[in-house]
Amino acid sequence: MKIIHLSDLHLGKRVNEFSMIPEQENVIEQITKITRDERPDAVIIAGDVYDKAQPSAEAVRLFDRLICGLSDICGHVFVISGNHDSAERIAFGGRIMERGGVHMSPVYDGKTEPQTLSDEYGEVDFFMLPFIKPSHVRAVFEDADISSYTDAVRRAVEAMRVRPDRRSVLITHQFVTGAGTCDSEEISVGGSDNVDASVFEPFDYVALGHIHGPQHIGRETIRYCGTPLKYSFSEENHKKSVTIVELREKGDARISTVPIVPIHDMRSIKGKYDELMSKAFYEGTRKDDYLRITLTDERDIPNAVSRLRTVYPNIMRLEYDNSRSRAGAAELKAAETELRAPAELFAELFKKQNNKEMTDEQKEILGDMIEKIWEGER
What pLDDT shows up at residue 324? Predict the structure, then answer.
């Protein structure tokens, strides 16, 4: 059985105030062509269809175009909601679309019934688990001891009817411990939203979403396919692609990728203003790419962005790297506490005030309080 694995489309996203809609239209065309060429049995979209819970009309039209194109080519499309999506909006119309082979994840209610497809090797069960938090699972399994994301996902998996005698695929959207991250992802600092990969042991393939760099965690069949586009300069060295999975007999999964080429790449260039503006330099570079430009001049260049844009029209960020900027960076180190997990900061304050560490029970109470506060803010 051949499967195309996609995730984290983030339709409607803006990067440094640049709309990604034109890039995403191009990517949808490429994905549709790859699907037509590969002729898969199923296409998976593992969450973060949209960039926000209330997507723009343009983003919704793009998704409609993608789903219609994919369903015309292959018999089954599986879509789950991610942390950027509204689970209710993704679920809307799911029972009607089911008739056309488009399977939209329902709002999590503890019941994850598989969709079963067949090939020459037998049956394959597809389980759809949208992005969940401990609070979502506790609301369903009130008697379960759930204090972490790992506990939550493990309990959700235990409630599934995974049959060891046939192949099974899990589609989910979580941060698995050990995954390499980048700046454009929304994860909890300090790792409080980590899920241990051991919870995925029953599955032959785990189609993950949430992390933007393509990679596997532990075994090759627990895989993030990554975003189809670069959404931050921390991704500039990523090779974006579509993941192709071929499930043969149980235990035999073969994974390959097909590259995706953007209209404009995202990259960084660095040097003195006069050097970057010299014809000898820019004639040998792709001037239309989305750029982060770092000037190394000791003096500020008046109207630098507007002047640079006469040559490089898609400048996203302008920075300086000189003696003054490095001195300023050293002063900002104190602000790094803002990037530490709230639980870590509170534990440090508790120790200073009480001259002792927090107990495990106190840490658990604190974790529950933080989660409830975050839930309220959302």
Answer: 83
